[in-house]
C-alpha cells in the first residue's frame, strides 16, 4: 500500500455468537473482473463509496496516487499519518474506480490542512497512532458513488476471525505494480492475543492496533491509509486504517496487515473535526 512502511514496522467486546452471526449474514461480494491482487479481486465500481484516493502533485505537474483514505465527513478524510509525512500539494479523488480513466462520477477536492495525531512518531511506527485527518477545501456531494463511512463506537474491538475486507489501489504483489482499478480482498480479523504472540508480530503490535489477514490475502504498497471494512450488524463499518506490513513481503503467513484501530483514535478525531 503507497507508502505502506514495509518495516518492523482491540472497551466493548463482541460475544462469539455475534461474530458467528456476522459470518453467516455477510454478503458474498461479486466482482466485475477476477484478478490476482495479493489474492484479491477487482471491486464492483463504487461498491465502497467512502473510499478515497489520496494523490500528490509531482514535479511533472501531474497528480499521482500514493495512499488510500476514508471519507468520514463531507469535508474530512481519514488516512494514515505516514502517508502525509512529507509536505506536498495534496488532493483527494472521491467516487474513483479506475485511476486511468474518468467515469464522470469522480469528485476532485483539494486539501486545505493536514492534521496528524500528536503521538505519531514517524521513526517508530510500532508505537501506533498512525492516523491523520485531511480537512478538505470544500464539501463533497453525497450521492450513489460518494458517501460517508460508518465508524465504530469508541473502544469497540472485533473478535478473532471477524469478517472484514481491505480495499485499495495497492500493489498486486510484493514486487508488483500499483493497481489501476480499485481492489478488495477478504481479510478476517486476527485477535490481539494471537497477533502479538510469538511467531506472529509479537511486541510490534499494540492494543491500539488491529491485525487482519496473515495468509494469502493482504494489503500492500499503495493501500496505506485506506479502510478495513468490517461487516457489523448488517452493514460495513470502517474499523481500521492500513498502517504497516512486513519488510519481507506483503502476504506472509503469520504477518497479517496491521491497521490503526479506528475505535481507539475516535476521541482525537472528534476534537480535531470540531
Brief synopsis:
The chain folds into 2 domains: 16-45 and 150-263, Beta Barrel (Thrombin, subunit H); 51-148, Thrombin, subunit H (Beta Barrel). The protein is 9% helix and 29% strand.
User: What do we call the CATH homologous superfamily of the largest domain?
Assistant: Trypsin-like serine proteases
Task: Work out the strand percent.
Answer: 25-35%
Bulk shape: globular
Work out the number of β strands.
14
Outline the fold blueprint.
Layout: H1 16-25, E1 41-42, E2 51-57, E3 63-73, E4 76-79, E5 90-94, E6 107-116, E7 132-136, E8 164-168, E9 183-186, E10 189-190, H2 192-195, E11 209-212, E12 227-232, E13 235-244, E14 257-261, H3 262-273
Antiparallel strand pairs: 1-9, 2-3, 2-5, 3-4, 4-7, 5-6, 6-7, 8-9, 8-12, 10-11, 11-14, 12-13, 13-14
What does this structure look like?
This protein is mainly beta and 274 residues long. The chain has 2 domains: 16-45 and 150-263, Beta Barrel (Thrombin, subunit H); 51-148, Thrombin, subunit H, CATH 2.40.10.10. Helix content is 9%, strand content 29%. The protein has helices at residues 16-25, 192-195, 262-273, and strands at residues 41-42, 51-57, 63-73, 76-79, 90-94, 107-116, 132-136, 164-168, 183-186, 189-190, 209-212, 227-232, 235-244, 257-261. An 8-stranded antiparallel sheet has the order 1-9-8-12-13-14-11-10.
Amino acid at each position: 500500500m503507497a507508502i505502506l512502511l514495509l518495516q518492523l514496522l482491540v472497551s466493548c467486546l463482541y460475544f462469539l455468537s455475534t461474530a458467528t452471526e456476522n459470518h453467516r449474514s455477510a454478503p458474498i461480494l461479486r466482482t466485475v473482473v477476477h484478478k490476482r491482487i495479493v489474492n484479491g479481486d477487482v471491486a464492483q465500481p463504487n461498491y465502497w463509496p467512502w473510499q478515497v484516493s489520496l494523490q500528490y502533485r509531482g514535479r511533472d505537474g501531474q497528480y499521482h496516487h500514493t495512499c488510500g483514505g476514508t471519507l468520514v465527513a463531507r469535508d474530512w478524510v481519514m488516512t494514515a499519518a505516514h502517508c502525509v509525512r512529507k509536505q506536498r500539494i495534496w488532493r483527494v479523488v472521491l467516487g474513483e474506480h479506475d485511476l486511468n480513466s474518468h467515469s464522470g462520477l469522480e469528485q476532485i477536492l483539494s486539501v486545505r490542512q493536514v492534521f496528524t495525531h500528536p503521538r505519531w512518531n514517524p521513526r517508530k511506527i510500532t508505537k501506533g497512532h498512525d492516523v491523520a485527518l485531511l480537512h478538505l477545501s470544500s464539501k463533497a456531494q453525497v450521492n450513489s458513488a460518494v458517501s460517508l463511512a460508518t465508524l465504530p463506537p469508541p473502544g469497540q474491538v472485533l473478535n478473532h476471525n471477524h469478517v472484514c475486507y481491505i480495499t485499495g489501489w495497492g500493489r498486486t504483489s510484493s514486487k508488483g505494480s500499483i493497481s489501476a482499478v480499485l481492489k478488495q480482498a477478504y481479510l478476517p480479523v486476527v485477535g490481539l492475543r494471537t497477533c502479538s504472540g510469538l511467531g506472529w508480530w509479537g511486541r510490534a503490535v499494540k492494543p491500539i492496533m488491529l491485525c487482519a489477514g496473515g495468509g494469502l490475502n493482504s494489503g500492500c504498497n499503495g493501500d496505506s491509509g485506506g479502510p478495513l471494512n468490517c461487516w457489523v450488524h448488517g452493514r460495513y463499518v470502517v474499523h481500521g486504517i492500513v498502517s504497516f506490513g512486513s519488510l519481507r513481503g506483503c502476504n506472509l503467513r503469520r504477518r497479517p496487515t496491521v491497521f490503526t484501530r479506528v475505535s481507539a483514535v475516535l476521541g482525537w478525531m472528534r476534537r480535531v473535526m470540531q
